[in-house]
Amino acid sequence: MNFKYSQAFSRNLGILTKDEQICLSQTKIGIAGMGGVGGEYLISLVRMGIQSFKICDIDHFEIANFNRQFGANCSSINKLKTKTMMDMALQINPRCQIKIYNEPITSLNAKHFVEGCDLVIDGMDFFALEAHEVLINESLNQKKVVVAAVPLGFGASIIAFHHQHMSFSDFFNFKQAKNDEEKALLFALGFGVGSYHTKYIDKNYIQIRNKKGPSIIPGIKASVGLICTSIVKSLLWPHEIKYSPHVVHLDFRLLKVKRKLLMFGNRGWLQKLKFFIAKKIYLKG
After folding, report:
1. Which of 162, 179, 267, 269 is the 20 to 30 A CA-CA neighbour of 85?
2. How far is it, in rounded angstroms, from Cα 203 to Cα 213?
3. Domain spans in the chain, listed from the N-terminal domain onward
4. How far apart, in whole angstroms, are the C-alpha atoms of residue 80 and residue 94?
5. pLDDT tens-digit profile of 6-34?
6. CA dihedral 214, 78, 32, 156 (to 10 degrees)
7. 16-282 fold
8. What pLDDT, in 10s, does the model give residues 83-140?
9. What's the first-to-final CA gap in the chain, in angstroms?
10. From CA 185, how far away is CA 276, in angstroms rounded?
């Protein structure tokens, strides 16, 4: 096949200008995580015409991933998520340049991963709490915008971080947590400002101590829409982006959206009250 970039992504034009499409084609994005949301971020951004990526993940696909992960199917079982997703991306645009890191994000490799990227996406597992903090802090140290979204039931929530705005540490306030379970609650509370998902999710399936929770594909798609739009806005129309402590939470089942300015992040009195209640519900016993 004779691949032609201009033809492959011509239907983007009219929504994007030719110059904007060229800008996307020359951008490099770092995506940490190739599972539930990260793999879909990669494929969606490739379809938008972005051609250069760094991706990382240490996991292999398994059958428990089938309900939500783009690369999970019968032929990818036990295969590396990074290699599988790279191969899928190259089937869409064979000119893509993708550097793979088959390792988790740590303080030892975060600097190298972020270097050279124009923007960074945190698409790692919800419970990779230390990795979230390391990646976002390193991105801000290098003055790179980093965006993160969390699927929440039939919806999702997004936060964009910028080095001149509230940091990860100040926003989530992990220092008030006594352990990783409490950090997970603070992470969820920071994103879930609308609390929409709590109105229909069975709390018995939220197992913080076992690092397990329910997921469904519309929530993944919601995250993808939020992240990919934010990436394009950051690149082309940065004046439209609201950074932390601004949070956007939408829910397709309830058809609701909330844009919230958490002035003090999780340090505010209302967030602290929610944290106290959440501990009673999810960490009882």
Report:
1. 162
2. 9
3. 16-282
4. 20
5. 999 999 999 999 999 999 999 999 999 99
6. -20
7. Rossmann fold (3.40.50)
8. 999 999 999 999 999 999 999 999 999 999 999 999 999 999 999 999 999 999 999 9
9. 61
10. 10
